[in-house]
Amino acid sequence: MLVLSVAATAVHAEDVLGRIREKKTITIAYRDAAFPFSFLDQDKKPVGYSIDLCLKLADAIKQQLKLPQLAIAYVPATSDNRMDLIQNGKADLECGATTNTAERRKSVAFTIPHFVAGERMLVKTDSNIKNWPDLRNKKVAVTKGTTNLKPLEGRGQVRALNLKVVDGRDHNDSFHILETGGADAFATDDVLLYGLKATAKNPSAYAVVGDPLTTEPYAIMLSKTDPAFKKFVDGEMSRIIHDYEINKLYDKWFLKPIPAKDNFTLNMPMSYLFRDSLRFPTDQVGN
């Protein structure tokens, strides 16, 4: 199997479908703590909204390649290494909660967004923190490798409020920093904060607050050097959206009890922004 370097992409395109056909295996990069998009269930198996979408894509690839069987291999991803896994050919699809941004599109590609989030913060209920100005001279946990720090800096709030940023290794670590008093708030995408709050030992001890700082279109990440593979994935994502299969998956993970999380229910209706985006599916986003 040939794995192309980034420098070689100007001359040669990667053949992801060919690699999958040869190995009769598709490799999915997953996150272990991005509930409800991608996380580990009680049996340590990757599950979630994004995982279900990727399994639908895998089934379409199996049919396209006319394979009697297609194995699913999972590789764990972090905020730091998820792009490298795609660029180095160690994963065919990254199925987590990754925002499609212009900066990231210099290195990888994204298919049509399957969720739209906004950056807010998680705080302790008794902290009296309600919005960003309440963070003056306080510490804020931000997960390393995410897009959540830049909006704070872009609005000038870090300097104006004299904030101190504390890096978390992953979302669980950032929450632990907040939980143990190492930070006064944890800033990241609102849906991830609702998931962390819901699965905390004492959910009522935490609150998601703050005006949204950003619009975060989550999308499945794939190789930038194989336009044919991207075209196929985009086509299948469009079909999933137009056939309302994505609505059924949304209901399963955001509105109904989740067996993998002790039948917890997020009770998060689809936002107007996301619902509107599904009317005209496109991978073209403004970030």
Automatic annotation (TrEMBL):
UniProt key word Hydrolase: no
Source organism, top-level taxon: Bacteria
Domain Solute-binding protein family 3/N-terminal residues, every copy: 25-257
Transmembrane segments: none
Keyword Signal: yes
Keywords assigned by UniProt, alphabetized: Signal, Transport
InterPro entries: Bact_solute-bind_prot3, Solute-binding_3/MltF_N
Similarity remark: Belongs to the bacterial solute-binding protein 3 family.
Listed PANTHER family: AMINO ACID ABC TRANSPORTER PERMEASE, GLUTAMATE_ASPARTATE IMPORT SOLUTE-BINDING PROTEIN
The protein, known as: Amino acid ABC transporter substrate-binding protein
Organism: Paraherbaspirillum soli
